[in-house]
Amino acid sequence: MAQEYTNDAIQGLAKQFWEQGYLCIPHFFSQKVMQTCQSEIENHFGDSPTFLHDDNFISRSKTEVIPWFPQREGNSEFDVISNNSLLQALSEAILGEGWDEQYCMVMFSKAGTNGQAWHQDCPPEDPAQFNLNRLVYTMDVTPELGGEVFVRPGTHKQGPLTTGPLFEDFDDQVVLVPKAGTLVLLHGHCWHRIGEVKSGNRVSTNFRAAPKNVPDDITDICVYRNMRYQFSTSEVLESYS
Ligand SMILES: [Fe+2]
User: In this structure, which residues have their CB less than 5 angstroms from ion ligand 1?
Assistant: First the structure.
């Protein structure tokens, strides 16, 4: 169990994170906690949730995710995850003193949706300005379900992603298929995408964090291979195709 990690092990994981731009740790959370949170998520979304983003964004970014912020609504069932002492120790080892938890966002994708195109969560020009995705899986992702997490190791150190096909396959890509209880830590500048969601609804929950002195709206501008998009204004800032 993750709870048995020593301080040396945590420092080793942080080093590995900074080399790769991501970490994937199975069995980090108990199945009991995952089942409780998954029930809350299913109760909230029901069978036919609607999209928040406008059609122009969805068609250009190929991103079809419906967000929910349970803690902002006073739902305390997710606190056991954000308060997990090992998650906090690992976050501190990666982000340094004074790091900040930004929010908890459940991301729901319906069966038959595109997933997410390759992107960086925020502009990568300043290496000190980034978000850390702390992705918790309350249900199994499987090859049959789809919705796998694609990452390109090391790309958090390489500046802006290149233009090109939005769902291109790369020889160096890693495909994560996280089971319930898995923790995935992902640097916001590391290229990532989500595979097509095929046979059922998919959820993951992001306990997003950031180093000290990073503004809460760090992810307002997302970088895709075809554009930079500002969520607060629903505006395409730069277009590359
Ligand atoms: Fe992302």
Answer: 121
User: Could you tell me the residue ranges of all domains in the chain?
Assistant: 2-239
Residue 193 pairs in a beta bridge with 150
Question: How close is the Cα of 33 to the center of ligand 1, in Å?
Answer: 24
Q: What is the pLDDT of residues 123-157, one digit of tens each?
A: 999 999 999 999 999 999 999 999 999 999 999 99
pTM above 0.85, yes or no: yes
Say which amino acid occupies 12.
G
CA of 165 to the centre of ligand 1 (A): 17
In the reported structure, the alpha carbon of residue 119 is separated from the centroid of ligand 1 by a whole-number distance in angstroms of 6
Going from the Cα of 193 to the center of ligand 1, the distance in angstroms, rounded, reads 7
The domain 2-239 is classified under which CATH number: 3.10.20.310, 2.60.120.620, 2.40.30.20, 3.40.980.10? 2.60.120.620
Q: For the segment 152-199, what is each residue's pLDDT rounded down to a tens digit?
A: 999 999 999 999 999 999 999 999 999 999 999 999 999 999 999 998
